[in-house]
Structure formats: structure tokens, C-alpha cells
Specification:
By secondary structure, the chain is of the alpha+beta class. The protein has helices at 2-9, 25-35, 77-90, 97-107, and strands at residues 45-48, 54-57, 68-75, 112-122, 132-139, 142-147, 150-153, 158-160, 163-173, 184-190, 198-204. It has four helices and eleven strands; from the N terminus they run H-H-E-E-E-H-H-E-E-E-E-E-E-E-E.
Length: 209
């Protein structure tokens, strides 16, 4: 059964599965078709659950001294196209890729990615702003960091016994940066804790469009 499913899916996929920093119209059409279930949905994001985090710097950093991330999702323009098309379908409207692609590029410009990070155990909602997220890039000349230029929150925040849980959304700009659209991306972050702990997890950019 699994093999038959793959046989149906594969003809609709472009040859190389990789993050598309500048989504083209043809792929956008396939994303829209997937949102309307005319073809199987394309992979427009990669999710990491459970989230495997490692410590890049610091001592006594695990278990987390404070809140902890439990899930991550990384996506680009293809996900925005999908969201816009799904929203239209939920409102019983038809949209074309020619309509939603320019809007997607306005919301998330070429070369940009979104990183969703769901937290658990945050003691105060104000501490959401203390999270600092970015990526570490390695080149022959050395390593450098790119920090998210914007951070927002989803409306899923709830108060639990051990604190608040909910999702942060970070926006990253890789324009002109040495990022392989088919390779691994090392995401780094600081939590709200005063401890000098730098954490990281790896995302496969070759797992979505």
C-alpha cells in the first residue's frame, strides 16, 4: 500500500526536492493544486517532533533551566502559498497560483525562511521576547551567525501546570548567505534563562520545497 501511494505521489513532484528560496510559478501551481486536493499535497515544511536539541556552549544546560522547546517547523514561500490557498478553500473560493504567489512573496520575500518553535514551561508570557534564534553558518573562512530579524507568536498560548505553552515564529533572511537549499541548516537559540547556554538543532532543507 505504501509503494502504491508513493507511485501516485512521485509523478507530481519536481525532480529535486529542496527548499526553494524563490518559488516559481510552476511549483506554486502544484502547491495550490495540492491545497485543493487535485493532487497529493507537496511537502512545504519540515517538522521536528520530538525536537532533538544539543548544547553548543555552556554547563548545566540540560535539562533546560526554565522553559524548553518541544517541537519545531521550518518552511519557506511554498508554505505561505499553501496557507493562502487553504484559507481560500475554507472560504469556498477558488484561487490561482498567479494570485497567491505575489502575495506569498510579499509576506515572505525571496531567500527568507520561517522557523516555528513550540515552548513548554514558560513561567511568564513576557519572557517569550527573551528567546533569541538564528542559524550558524560555516564557511572555509570560519563561522558566522544570522539572527532572526523578526519574531511573532501564534495564538495557541495556554497556561498549564508547569507554565505557559505555545509557539514562537521567527523570520530569517538568507539573501546572499552561503546556504545549501538541499543541505543541513544548523538552527541555534538562547532561551529566557540567565545561564550562558547556546542550543542547536539541525534541519534538512532537502526535505521540503
Amino acid at each position: 500500500a505504501v509503494r502504491r501511494g508513493l507511485a501516485v505521489l512521485l509523478p507530481f513532484l519536481p525532480l529535486a526536492l529542496a527548499w526553494q528560496p524563490a518559488l516559481d510559478l510552476e511549483l506554486a501551481r502544484q502547491v495550490v493544486d495540492g491545497a485543493y486536493s487535485r493532487i497529493p499535497p507537496l511537502p512545504t515544511a519540515v517538522e521536528l517532533s520530538p525536537l532533538e536539541v544539543r548544547v553548543l556552549r555552556g554547563e548545566g544546560c540540560l535539562p533546560f533551566p526554565g522553559s524548553r522547546p518541544v517541537w519545531a517547523r521550518v518552511a519557506g514561500q511554498a508554505e505561505v502559498v499553501e496557507i493562502l490557498a487553504e484559507r481560500a478553500r475554507n472560504e469556498f473560493r477558488r484561487v490561482q497560483a498567479e494570485e497567491v504567489l505575489p502575495e506569498a512573496k510579499r509576506l515572505l520575500p525571496d531567500g527568507h525562511l520561517r522557523v516555528y518553535l513550540r515552548l513548554s514551561g514558560l513561567k511568564r508570557l513576557e519572557h517569550r521576547a527573551a528567546y533569541t534564534l538564528g542559524v550558524r553558518l560555516k564557511t572555509p573562512e570560519g563561522e558566522s551567525y544570522v539572527r532572526a530579524y523578526r519574531a511573532t507568536y501564534l495564538d495557541d498560548w495556554q497556561e498549564k501546570e508547569d507554565g505557559y505553552t505555545g509557539t514562537l515564529v521567527f523570520y530569517l533572511d538568507f539573501s546572499g548567505k552561503p546556504v545549501d537549499p538541499k543541505g543541513p541548516l544548523e538552527v541555534v537559540f538562547l532561551t529566557e534563562s540567565e545561564k550562558d547556554c547556546l542550543y542547536a538543532f539541525t534541519v534538512d532543507l532537502g526535505a521540503f520545497y
